[in-house]
Amino acid sequence: MNVYHIETRNQFNTVLASLHEHVFSCSYGLGTKLSWDEQYLIESLSDSTIYMAYYTIAHLLQARDSFNEKQLEKSYSLSSTDISHSTLDHLRNEFQYWYPINLYSSEKDLTSNHLIYSLCNHTAIWPNQPEYWPRSFRINGNLLLNSNTISESAGNFITLLEAIEQFSADGICLVLANAGDDSIENADFDENKAKELLLYLYTFIEWI
């Protein structure tokens, strides 16, 4: 699996080495009941990391053209169902066409939980079918504003509309391109630097 950066691979290796200490279930809150002991739940973070598989057939389920309400609400055993073979084949074909995930893009703080759980869930559900495992994880840092964490409560934020009005769409692209490198480090949208770059851009256009 491609993770693009050695820092990301090192983070995954560190988390995997200590994963046996993680608690995967709880007794309250959102989640799926454990099939062998229903007093416990698979906590929502672990339970949600394979939701993208649902996207491959969501349009069919939501259209309700192949299912009726009773079929969607009831549970089925692995050995029997009253859903037609043609419908099940259609769902399978859609899943096999769209899966796996070619690129899973996320921020670095989720490497130690959401992303590693996603990888574990995929390998557990399809242990002998690596063609359904995620093909790559692309991890990025957070976006800072003037070297500080973006926070609405602290007043350190700027809306997209405000940024466009102040720096223009092209100016924002230029500033973001200069805000960070191709790594997992945080990128900094510096407003003073933005004004400086816009002046360079204006001078360049005038010179041309």
Description:
With 208 residues, this protein is α/β, with parallel strands linked by helices. It has 2 domains: 6-74 and 81-140, no CATH class; 143-207, no CATH class. Helices cover 48% and strands 14% of the residues. The protein has helices spanning 6-18, 44-47, 52-63, 69-73, 85-98, 111-125, 160-167, 169-179, 191-207; strands spanning 25-26, 31-34, 37-43, 104-107, 137-140, 143-145, 148-149, 187-189. It has a 3-stranded antiparallel beta sheet. It has a 3-stranded mixed beta sheet with strand order 7-6-8. A two-stranded parallel sheet has the order 4-5. Strand 4 (104-107), helix 6 (111-125) and strand 5 (137-140) form a beta-alpha-beta unit. Helix 1 crosses helix 6 (111-125), helix 3 (52-63) packs across helix 5 (85-98) and helix 8 packs across helix 9 (191-207). The longest helix is centred in the C-terminal third of the chain and has 17 residues, at 191-207. It is elongated and about 75 Å long. The two termini are 46 Å apart. 9% of the residues are buried. The model has no long low-confidence stretch (mean pLDDT 83). GO terms for molecular function: ATP binding; leucine-tRNA ligase activity. InterPro entries: Leu-tRNA-synth_Ia_arc/euk (IPR004493), Rossmann-like_a/b/a_fold (IPR014729). Belongs to the class-I aminoacyl-tRNA synthetase family.
